[in-house]
Amino acid sequence: MTIATIQNTPQNVEVVIVGGGLVGGLCALLLAEAGVKITVIDAAPPLTDEARAKGLLAKRDARVWALSPASLSLLERVGVWSRVVRHAPYQGMQVWSRDGRGVLDFGDLEQAHSDQEKILLGSMVEPSVLSLALQQVMQEQLGASYLQSKRLKNIERFSEHWSVTLESGESYQTPLVIGADGAGSMVRELAAIQVEQLDYKQMALTCAIRTEKPHGGIARQVFLPSGPLAFLPLANHENQTSAEHDCWQSVVWTLPAVQAQDLSDLDDTALMAALSHASGYVLGQVTAIQSRGVFPLKAQQAKQYCVDGLALIGDAAHVIHPMAGQGVNLGCLDAAVLIDALLHDRARGLWANRQTLKRFERERKLPNSVMMHGLSVLGWLQSSDQQWIMWLRGEGMQALAQLDGLRRVIGEQASGRSAVKSTRYRVMS
Length: 429
Ligand SMILES: Cc1cc2nc3c(=O)[nH]c(=O)nc-3n(C[C@H](O)[C@H](O)[C@H](O)COP(=O)(O)OP(=O)(O)OC[C@H]3O[C@@H](n4cnc5c(N)ncnc54)[C@H](O)[C@@H]3O)c2cc1C
Hints:
Elements: H1 3-8, E1 11-12, E2 15-18, H2 22-33, E3 38-41, H3 50-58, E4 65-67, H4 69-77, E5 88-90, E6 92-97, E7 103-107, E8 122-125, H5 127-142, E9 146-147, E10 152-157, E11 162-166, E12 171-174, E13 177-179, H6 186-190, E14 195-211, E15 218-224, E16 227-233, E17 248-256, H7 257-264, H8 268-278, E18 286-302, E19 306-307, E20 310-312, E21 318-319, H9 327-346, H10 354-383, H11 387-402, H12 404-415, H13 417-420
Parallel strand pairs: 1-12, 2-3, 2-13, 3-9, 6-15, 13-20
Antiparallel strand pairs: 4-8, 5-8, 6-7, 10-11, 11-12, 14-17, 14-18, 15-16, 16-17, 18-21, 19-20
Helix pairs in contact: 2-5, 2-9, 9-10
The chain binds flavin-adenine dinucleotide.
Flavin-adenine dinucleotide binds at residues 18-24, 41-44, 63-66, 151-152, 180-182, 186, 204, 206, 252, 295, 314-315, 322, 325-329, 331.
């Protein structure tokens, strides 16, 4: 038999997952744990080569993911979290407005508790650090079913299954395709699922910085007329001095596109001065900068999360403003809710039928939409310089600051616990 014939003989699998980022990877590991026969196709190259891995982790990333307790619990369950080489737990979040009206605190800002007593809001981890751990676990647990550096070419629907072909020639037959292939999802496009989009005409300028004062495990966000500026705790690094302990942070600065571009063109000294000033010197001067990135910002949602035998999860289904640090967390919740629904019906002899996928869509689409539109409104309110809106947002923040109950509800939503409380992936508090 020639290689061409081997490649053209389709393999039968229960699920093909397109995209092996955090969301697709988590989905794959949860399915593999339950003994489901899967194949993961990921265009990203392997990071696990020793030399490459060392180089990869030598520098701090230009951005971090703020992972919620629910995401951490899922990653612990599949054995990824214990492989993460560095991360920064945080126990408090402080949000304030530069016009001086309103400060909003979440979690524990007093720092009076010992490390054991602290209740964590989550942990900050650099994407490259997490991707390395994820790839290692996927390689070990999925073996040959994890295809790296492979691109999807086409998917075609037949009466009971999908035919999936890769650019490299392999093909698969499967009753279920999961599209976890990010914001520009090819799966979504090939399945003719439309998206609703809102271009914020803003960009996020990101970088790693060192400040004079330590962050103390607190994430900080100031609302400026141009958009929010966040300082997020970064993990300590093996190559840093003891004086730098807890002094590195990750910046996400949302700005109108032109302003972001202008700032990103500044040299390090000028950008450090701009950041120190914009943050109101909350942690003193910014004294060093490492790694920079600029990301265009948009909100996007697929009109449907599923069609027959196909589901979209993560950024393939929805993209939100990074202001609340929830994008990848919503994707992890999608994965947990989808896999729980699939396994529940599998135990009854059903696999990937329309009702199961619709149930997943019902459970996830509304909360994701609420988050997406809520952030769009908040962004608009915060960036407006009209007097009455400035007054309203100051009053709103002050009122919210007084309402312990409401703050607890917001904190509970952000933790992701309520989304998985009726699934097998329930998070114990
Ligand atoms: C500035 C910024 C800050 C952010 N901060 C946070 C934060 O603090 N917390 C948070 O939760 N979220 C944050 N996010 C959002 C977060 O980065 C995304 O929500 C997350 O990366 C989405 O994960 P995903 O796995 O769905 O998609 P992706 O990470 O985009 O992964 C998609 C995968 O699919 C693969 N792929 C794509 N096309 C194909 C193809 N044709 N064939 C095969 N494979 C393919 C890619 O190689 C990739 O591995 C932030 C985003 C930005 C821009």
